[in-house]
Amino acid sequence: MNAFTDIVGHKNIINALKHAVKNGSTAHAYIFDGPVGVGKKSVAATFAKVLNCERGESEPCNRCKSCLTFDAGTNVNYYGITHEKKNITVGDIRTQINANVSYPPQNGKYKVFTVPDADLMNIEAQNALLKTLEEPPEYVVFLLICTNYKRLLHTIISRCMIYKFMPLASSDVINYAVENLKLGSESASLYARYASGSIGKLKSMTGSEEFSEIRSRAFNLFSNSETSDIVTVYSMAEDMKKYESNILNGVLDTFFSIVRDAIVYKQTGNIKYVMQSDMANEIKEISFRHELEGLFVIFDELYKVKKRLSANGDVALLTESLLMTIKENSK
Ligand SMILES: [Zn+2]
Fold first, then answer.
1. Are strands 111-115 and 140-146 parallel, antiparallel or unpaired?
2. Does residue 176 lie in a domain region?
3. Pick from 11-25, 48-62, 271-285: least confident
4. Are residues 51 and 129 both part of a single domain?
5. Structural domain of 158
6. Are residues 48 and 133 in the same domain?
7. How far is the CA of 63 from the centre of ligand 1 (A)?
8. What separation in Å is there between the alpha carbon of 182 and the centre of ligand 1?
9. Residues 166-206: tens digit of each pLDDT
10. How far is the CA of 50 from the centre of ligand 1 (A)?
11. d(CA 218, CA 249)
């Protein structure tokens, strides 16, 4: 990431950070909280770079020794905390942070410590970090990156400046997909729909077989629920309960897109308004197999199932009722 201007979205947060750099009013510790893949790490990396940029402005110059070593991963004043176990342990904090905090930076203003997945610090690790946070040396800046900062101790949270990162606007994700990933505008909107405001998710989907596999699995499940006998539909629902949650969510999201497209096609009779134009034939067939009203019933049921699943509802029961609703509302 070369500059704040390269980052998609989060303009308010970026402006606040630039303002702090310009006025020399940076805090000792920040929490960047928000969903995976929306840009927290990019903002943190650019902020870390700009803090020690020798030009001393609110964007990194990308030419001074500090910026160049930062990009090469050899900047001596920058520490990206890593961990081997599932949790960040007290050993990780002691060896990578506490052991390096007491010496001032070499040829720079700040020592910057970034802790990705900071909410994975166990209690001992958090207490070890707290010791430094209570009386931080002038030159130290911590950037704690979290998906759920409420897992951190109150005593840590109260010492940090908190910035909450929201999912990106879908138009931002679409633009990114068109400009940076060179996708056509139709597939860009399709992927953006599944990426739910996360460029990280967008990138991993466009490069993965999994996304298209999940989609075709969802199309098969939907069509088979319409055309199979009841016993088969029950056994399909039984199968779905074994899905990992990301796959189940992908299938349900695809169901939403299928029903939405089938409704649009039913109402307009024109395939150009359908979002998943690569599946035009399948969408047409599905729309022929339902009355408009039936599609709305399925849409409502899907909405209900999604909501109940996120509240830890019984997967088997919910998928069963969903597939049965699809079947009952087919011609
Ligand atoms: Zn620089």
1. parallel
2. no
3. 271-285
4. yes
5. 4-164
6. yes
7. 5
8. 30
9. 999 989 999 999 998 888 777 788 788 778 899 988 888 87
10. 7
11. 10
| Residue 306 tokens, joined | 């999604």
Q: Does 155 score more than 80 pLDDT?
A: yes
Q: What is the pLDDT of residues 247-296, one digit of tens each?
A: 888 899 889 989 999 999 999 999 888 878 778 899 999 999 999 999 99
Long-range pairs for 299-308: beta carbons < 8 A, 24 or more residues apart: 299/256, 299/259, 299/260, 299/263, 301/325, 302/252, 302/255, 302/256, 302/259, 305/252, 306/252
The alpha carbon of 325 and the centre of ligand 1 are apart by a number of angstroms equal to: 60
Closest CA to 267 of 239, 299, 307, 243: 299
Determine the Cα–Cα distance for residues 59 and 55; give it in Å rounded to an integer. 9
Q: How far is the CA of 13 from the centre of ligand 1 (A)?
A: 21
Q: Do 19 and 134 belong to one domain?
A: yes
- Locate the DSSP E strands across the chain: 29-33, 78-80, 111-115, 140-146, 161-164
